[in-house]
Amino acid sequence: MNHILKIVAAAAIAGAASGASAVTLVNGSFEAGSLSAPFETATAGSSAITGWTVGGFGVDYVGSYWMASDGVRSVDLSGLNAGSVSQAFATTIGSNYTVTFDLSGNPDGGVGTRTAIVSIDGSLPSIKSYVVAPSNSRESMNWQTYSYDFTAFTTTSRLVFASADYTPFGPALDNVSVIDNGGGAGSTVPEPATWAMLMIGFGMVGMTVRSRRTAVVAA
């Protein structure tokens, strides 16, 4: 019976894990869009980056100027000054989400900290810092992966990445993705297939118990 219980437990764990799913985010790696190589400064309201809205003082849409984290394009969140990019996407009220993204820093500004602010409507923003080291260069950007968690309060949420550096040498952004983790720890509802496995497992446990009782009575 212990073996059967282990199978049932594994099914429950698998069902909970399957609750996480990827969210459709348009152009998360900034590969689609118009670009004048090696980079182009996109001003507020620009549609140069497919799926994203440019704000603030604009951003640099970077192509061959430096090595991207994913693909060949990325964004410097400071154009001539601190800028931003944002995108709205469908969310489920009460669901928990994890945003992952890669950060580096414009190496032309020398060593030092580059600071990005990531936020979602109705949630507290998060400050993410990246330190440009002497080893950073256009050929070796030393990208690092960061994450940001939020709970959706509306059916449409707007994700915003903004520079906190009021210089032309801001934080570099690439490889953005969003995962829907469901309704929070312990609240994931098993999918129908998982329920079927659980019911079969509990049925087998019941049959084993009854057969053992029958054997005892017979003895």
TrEMBL record:
Residues 25-178 form the DUF642 domain. Residues 188-213 form the Ice-binding protein C-terminal domain. InterPro entries: Choice_anch_C_dom (IPR027576), DGR2-like_dom (IPR006946), Galactose-bd-like_sf (IPR008979), Ice-binding_C (IPR013424). Residues 1-22 form the signal peptide. The keyword Signal applies. SUPFAM superfamilies: Galactose-binding domain-like. Keywords: Signal. NCBIfam families: choice_anch_C, PEP_CTERM, PEPxxWA-CTERM. This is Choice-of-anchor C family protein. It comes from Sandarakinorhabdus glacialis. The lineage of its organism: Bacteria, Pseudomonadati, Pseudomonadota, Alphaproteobacteria, Sphingomonadales.
